[in-house]
Specification:
The complex is a heterodimer.
Chain A: H1 2-6, H2 8-30, H3 44-52, H4 62-66, H5 68-93, H6 100-126, H7 128-133, H8 136-155, H9 164-178, H10 186-204
Helix pairs in contact in A: 2-9, 3-10, 5-6, 6-8, 8-9
Chain B: H1 8-20, H2 23-30, H3 43-48, H4 55-69, H5 78-81, H6 89-99, H7 119-131, H8 138-149, H9 158-176, E1 192-195, H10 199-202, H11 205-218, E2 222-223, H12 235-239, H13 242-259, E3 263-266, H14 270-283, E4 292-294, H15 295-304, E5 319-322, H16 325-328, H17 335-344, E6 348-349, H18 374-380, H19 382-391, E7 395-398, H20 401-413, E8 419-422, H21 423-430, H22 442-449, E9 453-457, H23 461-473, E10 477-481, H24 484-493, E11 498-502, H25 510-519, E12 528-532, H26 544-551, E13 558-561, H27 566-583
Parallel strand pairs in B: 1-2, 1-3, 3-4, 5-6, 5-7, 7-8, 9-10, 9-11, 11-12, 12-13
Classes of the chains: A mainly alpha, B alpha/beta.
The complex binds iron/sulfur cluster (2 copies).
Amino acid sequence: MLELLKHEVQYVALSIMGLVYILKVFWILRFKPMKERTPGRGMEKKAIIASFFCLAMPWTMESTRKKWYKWLEFAVFHIGIAIAIVASFLIPEAPGLMTAAVVTIFKIIIAMSFFIVLLRLGRRMFSPVNKLISHPDDYFSVAMMVIWFFVAFFAMDMNESHWQFPAYFAITAFLIAYVPFSKMSHYILWPFSRYYFGKHFGHRGTYPKVKGEL
Amino acid sequence: MSNRQKSEKAQKATDSFKNKMNRQAILSFGVCVHCGMCTESCHYYLATRDPKMAPAYKADRVRKLYKKYFDFAGRLLPKWVGGGELEKDEDLQELMDIVFGSCTMCRRCTFNCPMGVDKALLMRTGRAIIYEQGYAPQGVLDVAKDQWEIGNQMGISDEDYLETIEWLNEEIKSELDDDTAEIPLDKPNCNIVFAVNPREIKYAPMSLLAAAKIFHVAGESWTMSSTKGWDNTNFGLFAGDNKLGAHMGNLVYDTVEKLNGKMLVTSECGHGYRATVWEAPNWAARDLKFPMYSFLEIMVDYVKTGRIILDKTKNPVSVTYHDPCNLARSGGITEEPRFLLQQSVMDFREMYPNRADNFCCTGGGGAMSMSEYAKRRLESAKVKADQLKETGAGICATACHNCVDGLTDLIKFYKLGMKVNLVGELVADAIVWEKKPVIPVIEEVVEAHAPFTVMVIDDEPDVVTFLSTLFQDSGYNTLEATSAAEAFAWLKTAKPDLITLDLIMPGVSGLDIYKDLKTDGANRDIPVVVISGVNPENPGLYDMRKLQFEHSLPKPEGYVEKPIVKEELLMIIDKVLDHYKHKK
Ligand code: SF4
Ligand code: SF4
């Protein structure tokens, strides 16, 4: 059973995710984009690149500049997700790479991510704005992350007798398959969205934000 | 609820929503992760701390349709992802309160969203689907109607337009002491075809006068249309009506082509620039052969090439600059006004935050025409008021007529004691022109005004005395009234040539007096110049537009904001009387 969870179930989940991702990309492309008929005033290409990198440049947005701790939470949390996913393939496929040092680093980041998602869940439940804009899918997705990071932390020890170990693989598979249907599907939409943001505002010369001389 | 149970309008709005989805829209609708990072970008939220003013919440009121009809999971389990329907007419009404009443489509939140969600696009989609069903603030419906039927947003007839231009021609000739100075109409093959905001014809001719002066001094070959095609504003942008947007764009573009102009230049109007230069070619599906610019860009060119010379000592008062949202976030114009102000005023100081980070004047998105939301608008203006106050400047310059109105309103409401000017007006004031302007000898002015009688109606005796003295010094005869009873008692025995009317008066208000005047056969042809201020208790109370609509009344002949600028008031009185004299 554990072997099934570590291998076949993961691949089935990945295939579902891949298939729905591809379908979603085709679905997005079915919609016609708005086109600008006027000659551009700014630098579209530069703006598109800047738009993609905005998350790596928290100083460029007032929201991330002022709430830098939220940006930090975001960064750590997303690295945590990447690590927890990578580990779910390294453990069964290349356990040799999971050296003591790697495990320690993974565990530290996963532990931090766990506390961050816990905090985010708390915010969704108690902060008036976040509460008002949250739907069941938002709560469910964050709650699943809390559980996932919790089990992932213990699973990094690769002790198959701990209940967290199979649970980690089961939840990973579930999340991978669930992602395209949930708010977590923003992974697919985000590159398109940032591309069009950069293209639109870059065309008009309002992005990247002007900070200088004429 | 099944489709059959929906009200007809709700069904039509839903169908329209489905048809409006394009790639950018589905991305902006779909990518929001409800992180709330955009919350504190919005002036409505910052001023009230009301969670329902958070941009994501407001966007979700429209997004629910996307979730229900387009989202993969939402089609099966709409509630799970926040999907929902428009079911009743009341739902449309409720949506109107959000998309028109609590968002100026300023795009400040858009620039602060890590995912790139364009909330203004979502709000405009929301506006579009309900506007098509007749759900929009009355002011928006009226203006849109005037643009469709008359070709400009203030319903100005060709006759009134031409008379104003004629009067402005006299002013510019006398100001520059140059008989060749004028606003040329329908002149073919010019370098510039100029399109303006109708406010410049109706209520704020000083800015058109300033532009005419700048063009003249620069030796520009320019012209304007003598009939439709001179209005650069476009309520298609605010109503979400692309057809109206295309119609207004086409009127201006056709004019440029008909006159064989080399370029189109829009006067200082944020949304007018955005709609004319960026949006309308898309709405009208037109690939234009001529370039389009803002008047700000043209002025910069004049200064840089020495076509106009500026003397900043002529503007000694400290000036700050408010970036109109449609120029800074949607139009790409931020440095030009700064350059011009640095050249034309002694003390220019930045406002913070600025450029694309600036806060809305709170009058954007058509908000100035939505009297029903005036209270909320002014409440949200606290953020802007704090920003203005911080600069300590005496004048707030801006490059948008709409912002002038929004800022003037909030400056009065928060008692900031600042003046608002357009950049072009300050540039015109700073222009170095060899011929000295001829100031007509007082006796001449007095003589010219002598046959006219102006009745001043204002509940404050000090104001009545001030205005009467001002008018008498200018040669007018005056009648004074501090109440409706006094005014109508006068009107039984005398017929003034013009009435200046204060709106905010205890008991019978100025609005009631206006209604009685304009429905009274004997007095209805007396021109009225409304002098208005904001009532801090209830800013939407003295709403002229609402009154006009409810009682089918004509627009007042003139409109002046308090605090009164003497020169402006006299200029408007002069213009109205001139017009009146011609009519008689
Ligand atoms: S619009 Fe953007 S910033 Fe606002 S809640 Fe959605 S994803 Fe977050
Ligand atoms: S577009 Fe402007 S007014 Fe509208 S929600 Fe965003 S920040 Fe607020």
